[in-house]
Design a protein that fits this description.
The protein is mainly alpha-helical. It has 21 helices and no strands.
Length: 459
């Protein structure tokens, strides 16, 4: 692929009367090249085919044979929506089925899923997640993709998205019908774009009302002194919660007084899929609540400092990845599908693709996220044939591997400092500064700093 092509991919480099998507060396009255158009159509077809194949590998049996293998978590949302329509409590167990553990606003929003036939709901939910995941990949890998020729960019996007859809964090979201990809999309759309249709903070408030973990981004807004955005997020959260209280008063009261604190209803803290700090510590020293609180406090301080430093450098996506992973690690339970924030972290690590060390490391990390390594390690530890004593510590590390990877990203940032410094001094055209939306409480970048790529939220 032609990396570093600086021809006519930027409208500012073309005459004012020339269309932005027309090469500079092509006269305005010259007909479009049918071969080039056919090649671009083929690129689009291959990219879409790769993404569809990856989604089918992830959740194909559940999409086409839904009566045999359901999307368990999506069915939980649909049952919650039905309970709202029937006037039943949201948090009453329904036999052996999984219980609803989300805030009442999520149950209220799930009413929209009830009228859909099961298979239609499965298809719309799955490919809605795929669309948001592809957009997240486009945003996360923008420095790399924007260096490619326009006729290669879509093919590269499809290739990267296909590979990442096969990693466990994204695959589990599709297999279970989870909501984490959609919530990550709301947060990124709130924090990155220059041009917004809604005040900054609204989407974070909605995401927090649907699932409390994104509330860590309200803290991030405060740490970066975006007071107005933090206030908007908090006000949005309160407003939609008041709506939920008005419609579901008993379920609202039960959630905030009982269900929120009953983490045992969600699952076993020591279960392998729980890759939060609490899960890692429970597998090492069960019942270590005080130790967990102390570790969370230290990691939270370090992580928010790292995020603030990245924000001050104009690396907003790196800050978002750190804060998202911090929210998962600090929660009592963070299943593997909560670690979707590793996707933007990988995009930050790759950067513009000039540093081969960063690209190789990103490829290695992606490859490690594809197989179910934590579960294989857990099976080896608990299997009928005990592992050799010298091998057990390594298996323990592998069992906690996804959480430890997220922890390293929070403590040290997605890119090692030495590699980041090398990239800052590498030759190449400087990135132009990007204007941010005016915010009276926002810190302004120092002279010469970049505020990140121009990203537009999905419509």
């Amino acid at each position: 692929m032609a990396i570093g092509d600086e021809r006519a991919d930027h409208p500012a480099d073309q005459p004012a009367d020339q269309p932005a998507d027309q090469p500079a060396d092509q006269p305005a009255d010259q007909p479009a090249d049918p071969v080039g158009q056919g090649r671009r159509a083929l690129d689009v077809l291959l990219a879409v085919a790769g993404v569809v194949v990856a989604a089918t590998i992830d959740a194909g049996t559940k999409l086409w044979w839904s009566d045999l293998v359901p999307l368990e978590d999506l069915d939980v949302y649909r049952r919650a929506g039905q309970a709202v329509l029937d006037g039943r409590p949201l948090y009453e167990p329904a036999g052996p089925q999984l219980v609803f553990t989300y805030p009442p606003f999520s149950g209220l929003a799930s009413v929209a899923l009830v009228p859909l036939p099961q298979r239609v709901a499965y298809l719309l939910w799955t490919f809605g997640q795929v669309a948001v995941a592809v957009w997240l990949v486009r945003v996360s890998f923008a420095p790399l993709l924007d260096r490619l020729r326009s006729d290669h960019r879509i093919l590269a996007l499809g290739g990267v998205a296909t590979a990442l859809l096969l990693t466990q964090p994204l695959m589990e979201n599709l297999v279970l019908g989870q909501v984490n990809v959609l919530l990550a999309g709301l947060v990124v759309a709130d924090l990155l774009p220059r041009r917004r249709r809604l005040p900054q903070g609204v989407l974070i408030g909605l995401a927090t009302a649907a699932k409390l973990v994104p509330g860590i981004f309200v803290v991030y807004l405060l740490v970066t002194r975006r007071w107005r955005a933090a206030a908007v997020a908090a006000a949005t959260f309160v407003a939609v919660d008041l709506v939920a209280w008005a419609v579901l008063p008993s379920s609202f009261t039960r959630y905030w007084t009982t269900e929120l604190w009953a983490t045992d209803r969600i699952g076993d803290l020591a279960y392998t899929s729980n890759q939060s700090l609490r899960g890692v510590l429970e597998r090492l020293t069960p019942g270590s609540s005080l130790l967990w609180l102390a570790v969370v406090a230290v990691v939270a301080v370090v992580g928010l400092v790292r995020a603030r430093q990245a924000h001050d450098r104009g690396e907003e996506l790196a800050a978002i990845a750190v804060v998202g992973l911090l929210g998962a690690l600090a929660s009592p339970i963070a299943w593997v599908h909560h670690l979707v924030w590793l996707i933007p972290a990988l995009g930050v690590l790759v950067g513009d693709g000039r540093d081969r060390r960063r690209v190789v490391l990103a490829v290695v990390v992606t490859a490690l996220l594809v197989p179910r390594i934590p579960w294989h390690a857990a099976d080896a530890l608990a299997g009928p044939d005990p592992a050799a004593p010298w091998l057990r510590p390594l298996l323990g590390v592998l069992q906690d591997g996804d959480g430890l990877l997220a922890l390293a990203c929070v403590l040290f940032g997605p890119v090692p400092r030495r590699w980041r410094a090398a990239a800052d001094t590498s030759p190449g055209p400087p990135r132009p500064p990007v204007e941010q939306e005016a915010d009276p409480g926002a810190r302004r970048p120092r002279a010469g700093q970049s505020t990140g790529p121009d990203v537009t939220a999905p419509r």
